[in-house]
Design goal:
The complex is a heterotrimer of chains A (about 325), B (about 325) and C (about 300).
Chain A lengths: L2 H28 L4 H13 L6 H12 L5 H13 L14 H34 L6 H16 L2 H15 L20 H38 L2 H8 L4 H39 L4 H10 L3 H29 L3 H4 L2
Helix pairs in contact in A: 1-12, 2-3, 5-8, 5-10, 5-12, 6-8, 7-8, 7-10, 8-10, 9-10, 10-11, 10-12, 11-12
Chain B lengths: L12 E14 L2 E14 L3 E5 L6 H8 L7 E10 L2 E2 L5 H10 L1 E4 L13 H11 L6 H14 L16 H13 L5 E5 L7 H18 L2 E6 L2 H7 L2 E6 L2 E7 H6 L4 H9 L47 E4 L2 E3 L5
Parallel strand pairs in B: 3-8, 3-9, 6-7, 7-8
Antiparallel strand pairs in B: 1-2, 1-4, 4-5, 9-10, 10-12, 11-12
Helix pairs in contact in B: 5-6
Chain C lengths: L20 H14 L1 H23 L31 H37 L1 H16 L2 H11 L6 H12 L1 H15 L2 H8 L4 H37 L10 H10 L8 H29 L8
Helix pairs in contact in C: 2-3, 2-11, 3-4, 3-6, 3-7, 3-9, 4-7, 5-6, 6-9, 7-9, 8-9, 9-10, 9-11, 10-11
Classes of the chains: A mainly alpha (about 325), B alpha/beta (about 325), C mainly alpha (about 300).
Chain lengths: ~325, ~325, ~300
């Protein structure tokens, strides 16, 4: 793999992170609201404190959070913190740090998202490949296509709500919310705990998978159709190759390339959808944490999560960018 | 319909096509790409099939390989390879036939090779799917030998198609086409999109491998100059039908059919100077072929009969056939 | 090199067009049969609009405000869709909210498309550094999860958003995808003969764009508008469900927010969350089919059997 290709991709990754972090920094500061003041005022009101000492307290906290310095100094501080992974404290759950909160929630999200996206992509692509191949059984394209098409139009969380209602609420087969039963202490070495987690994760996973399969299947089917029009398919058939060889090594293998590109481009969209699904199911991942942070005006948590997520997507895209030349030998040479 | 004895008897026929019709069904009607073609190919013969774009030549090639896909269909006729009825074979046997007995060098060499597979693997999979796979070392030797035959270096085997030039890609296609030693090679416009120098190389390669193998070649195309240099016999197609079949020298010196005559007359020559002469009018749409002789609207010698009765192939001279009411 | 004279474009015989309304109608219907998604999409969306239109005529939409009716009631004769926990009549909410949601989507989609078209033309036509910059921004912008960026923006604009402001927030990202797709369309059009001719005949850049390219691009722009609207609606509902939308307006997304906020599911208030879900499904399936149908109209594909 050529060095300049890797460097270019890495450069893009850095730009993404920089842009997101900068946006993250500036936008909230554009509004006249002061989160610290608000939070303190809120707490003072709920706790019944007198307003008299508020101003001094605010100044103290502002100094602590560095909000009293000029903007450019704050910006530099911001970057200093970021590089040291100092995402600051949560205003709501003080003194917990944002980082530790995220660390707790992230594995759940990665687990859910990773598994479901992979499954949806693989199953959807496989189905799509069959649907796009004239030699495959017709019932797949006749009976599977319309429902998959319809499902792909529906946002993930809407499907989640439907599933939640039907299976969790009415039929009472699956639990309604959470990552595991309430009151249970997570014990990752216990099989029973894993089973509990699996039950709780099934509906959220299903809503993502069902909604996403249609998209991948449609895309792959379209790619298969395009690929079959290519000249090398004609020559391959003229070589007397078997149907399975033509299907796998010629059609699917080539149709897969734009499909993987599509995956890289869709990552952001999939994540957005997953966040909302988590909220619907109160799944203990980044999504639910984000929701609660927004509702409670927990500034730093929100910022931390968003930045973390954007960075993760940047990393994932970067990895996919590195995988792509392995699949398509033409890529590295195009840069020349 | 024209009958099938369009050959001169001495060597056996390796391929026989009789009354072949290939139609494409569209909402507007049937496009008659091939409308009753018959000819025979002898062993070790080089036969050319010439015609304008849209005259049905490529459909002919695909039909012989039984690779016509919907909405196209073989509406009528027969194809016999070495006395075996190709059109009646079960699909599995047809697959075995392809490449092993009859090979196609398809049009569009630029894109005929799988972009994500190395040349070596694309040669090997022909062997594999015909159950002729050899142990690794012998396979390597075979690949090198094939590449050498078409004038390519052995290290081409490791390359991907996009690393090769147009001429090299075409020669790889030829190497693949001869890899299982077929009896018939159909080359469909093998040199389009190549420059003249490379064209010559490719045609020379083709000639060499054909002679080495003792195979027969059908060269489909529209380049009369190539035909003149390469083929033994030449068939002229017009509007899906064969209008003349003769030894190539006769086609150029004494063309019988008016279309062929005007065709030859339109070719620029190095000796004379003068104006370009074309053939007035346009070839008919294959949806709506004129009744009787398809050429009659443009023929300077057309008679009343030409508009109603379709002319049959006649042996105007020994092994020279043409379909025209004038003869 | 001598070759058989090749014919000019072999055209299929042209059928003389017969005027008359009957002929045209039959032609339109025939086309519709060949393009089912277009019909499905139109039917679904028109039914939604009809629902809202007729509902607005026969029903008192003021009941979509909180505290206008007794809270928490299941569907009954007086309240066809029941009421929610804040005293809104849910039927009124649906009738009033759907057009609002659509309006946000259309506004954002329109702005996104407009900005996207301008940028696409600038980028494709003038090329060079401008093109590289625009393309870079678009590529990076599309990689990032849009919802999250919009969350940042929405939080920054915190306060009571109006429907129009909501549309603007969504529009901030809505122009990215149209810019990319329209740019590639313009690039392929730029090399076409009629553009070259226009350039040779001395037309200025902007003139060519407006007089030659735009008219040809219209069907594609229409298809893109539907697509942009769909994704804008998706984004706006997502933001609203998080609580970052126009809190006072009874849009579909806000309804979902209150559903989640009050745990309507746990309380068994099925009449509260089923209507918005059904409307969302109809809306999205309709928009999706319409966009597929329009795409087919803009770029007819001569696909046969697969």
């Amino acid at each position: 793999m050529r060095a300049d290709y890797v460097l270019k991709r890495f450069g893009i990754f850095l730009i993404i992170v920089w842009a997101a972090a900068t946006l993250n920094f500036f936008l909230p500061r554009l509004s006249p609201q002061n989160p610290v003041r608000e939070k303190l005022t809120q707490q003072a009101l709920s706790g019944g404190y007198l307003q008299s000492g508020i101003q001094e307290m605010v100044k103290e906290y502002e100094a602590k959070f560095g909000l009293d310095k000029p903007l450019w100094a704050q910006y530099l501080n911001y970057w200093d913190d970021l590089v040291h992974f100092q995402f600051n404290y949560s205003i709501v759950s003080y003194p917990r740090t944002v980082l530790s909160m995220m660390g707790e929630a992230l594995p759940w999200t990665i687990g859910l998202l990773g598994v479901t996206t992979l499954l949806a992509f693989l199953i959807g692509t496989f189905l799509g490949a069959l649907m796009g191949w004239p030699g495959a059984p017709k019932f797949i394209s006749n009976y599977l296509l319309p429902p998959l098409l319809t499902l792909s139009a529906i946002p993930y969380y809407v499907l989640g709500l439907v599933l939640l209602y039907v299976f969790a609420f009415q039929a009472k087969i699956f639990p309604i919310f959470g990552g595991y039963a309430a009151g249970v202490i997570p014990n990752w070495s216990s099989l029973a705990f894993w089973w509990d987690v699996a039950q709780h994760a099934l509906l959220p996973a299903l809503s993502i998978i069902l909604a996403a399969i249609g998209f991948w299947a449609l895309g792959m089917r379209a790619m298969m159709v395009t690929t079959q029009g290519e000249d090398y398919m004609i020559f391959a058939e003229a070589k007397g190759l078997k149907g399975s060889t033509l299907f796998l090594r010629y059609a699917v293998r080539n149709a897969l390339l734009p499909q993987v590109t599509s995956l890289a481009l869709q990552l952001g969209h999939i994540l957005s959808g997953a966040v909302l699904v988590e909220i619907v199911f109160s799944f203990p991942g980044i999504g639910t944490m984000l929701y609660q942070a927004i509702r409670a005006n927990d500034y730093f948590v929100t910022q931390g999560i968003i930045l973390g997520v954007i960075t993760s997507i940047g990393i994932a895209t970067f990895i996919l960018d590195l995988i792509y030349p392995i699949l398509d030998p033409r890529i590295t040479y195009r840069r020349a | 319909m024209a009958n099938s004895t369009v050959n001169n008897g001495a060597k056996p026929d390796i391929l026989r096509v009789e009354g072949l019709r290939v139609y494409y069904d569209t909402p507007r009607g049937s496009v008659k790409a091939v409308d009753g073609i018959s000819f025979a190919l002898k062993a070790e013969e080089r036969f050319g099939l010439a015609g304008e774009s849209g005259s049905g030549k490529s459909s002919m090639a695909l039909a012989v390989m039984r690779m016509i896909k919907p909405p196209g269909r073989i509406a009528h006729g027969g194809v016999w390879l070495d006395s075996r009825n190709v059109l009646a074979l079960p699909e599995e046997q047809m697959q075995r036939l392809r490449l092993a007995e009859i090979a196609l060098i398809a049009q569009g060499s630029m894109n005929s090779l799988n972009p994500v597979m190395r040349v070596r693997d694309q040669i090997i999979d022909g062997f594999r799917d015909h159950d002729l796979l050899l142990p690794r070392r012998e396979m390597e030797a075979r690949i090198h030998e094939l590449l050498e035959r078409v004038g390519l270096r052995p290290d081409v085997a490791d390359m991907f198609p996009h690393e090769l030039s147009g001429g090299m890609k075409q020669r790889v296609c030829i190497a693949i086409a001869i890899s299982l030693r077929p009896k018939v090679i159909i080359a469909d416009e093998p040199t389009s999109a190549l420059d003249v120098v490379v064209q010559r190389q490719v045609m020379e390669t083709l000639r060499k491998v054909q002679e080495d193998l003792g195979a027969s070649v059908i060269l489909v195309g529209h380049d009369m100059g190539l035909m003149a240099q390469f083929v033994d016999r030449l068939g002229i197609m017009y509007a899906g039908k064969l209008v003349e079949v003769s030894p190539v020298a006769d086609i150029f010196t004494t063309p019988r059919h008016p279309y062929t005559q005007m065709l030859i007359a339109s070719l620029p020559s190095l000796e004379e100077k003068g104006e370009f002469r074309g053939i007035p009018g346009l070839p008919p749409s294959l949806l709506d072929v004129p009744p009787g002789c398809a050429f009659h609207p443009r023929c300077p010698h057309a008679m009343d009969r030409c508009g109603t009765e379709e002319p049959l192939m006649k042996e105007v001279q020994p092994s020279s056939w043409a379909a025209c009411h004038l003869l | 090199m001598a070759s058989v004279p090749t014919a000019a474009a072999q055209s299929l015989p042209v059928e003389p067009s017969e005027g008359g309304l009957g002929e045209k109608l039959r032609g339109v219907l025939g086309y519709m049969r060949r393009n089912p998604p277009l019909i499905v999409g139109l039917v679904l969306l028109l039914s939604l609009l009809l629902f809202c239109g007729i509902g607005a005529l026969v029903y008192d939409l003021n009941r979509a405000r909180p505290l206008s009716v007794p809270p928490g009631l299941p569907p009954a004769a007086d309240y066809p869709f029941g009421t929610d926990n804040q005293g809104r009549d849910l039927f009124a909410v649906m009738v009033a909210g759907t057009p609002l949601t659509l309006r946000i989507g259309l506004m954002a989609g329109f702005i996104g498309l407009f900005v996207g078209t301008v940028l696409a033309f600038v980028s494709a036509y003038y090329g060079g550094l401008i093109d590289t910059i625009i393309r870079g921004v678009v590529d990076i912008g599309l990689t990032v999860p849009g919802l999250l960026v919009m969350i940042i923006i929405a939080i920054a604009v915190k306060g009571n958003l109006s429907v129009e402001q909501m549309a603007l927030v969504v529009a901030c990202l809505a122009w990215l995808y149209p810019t990319r797709t329209i740019r590639s369309q313009v690039l392929s059009m730029r090399e076409r003969a009629y553009v070259q001719v226009a350039r040779l005949s001395g037309m200025s850049g902007p003139e060519i764009i407006v007089k030659e390219m735009l008219p040809n691009l219209l069907p594609y722009l229409l298809a893109s508008l539907v697509g942009a609207t769909a994704s804008a609606v998706l984004a706006s509902i997502g933001l609203e469900a998080l609580g970052l939308g126009p809190l006072e307006s009874p849009t579909i997304g806000m309804t979902l927010y209150w559903v989640i906020y009050y745990s309507a599911l746990l309380l068994g208030m099925w009449w509260w969350f089923i209507p918005p879900i059904v409307i969302i499904i109809i809306l999205f399936v309709g928009l999706f089919n319409l966009s597929v149908g329009l795409d087919e109209l803009a770029n007819p594909r001569l696909r046969r059997s697969v």
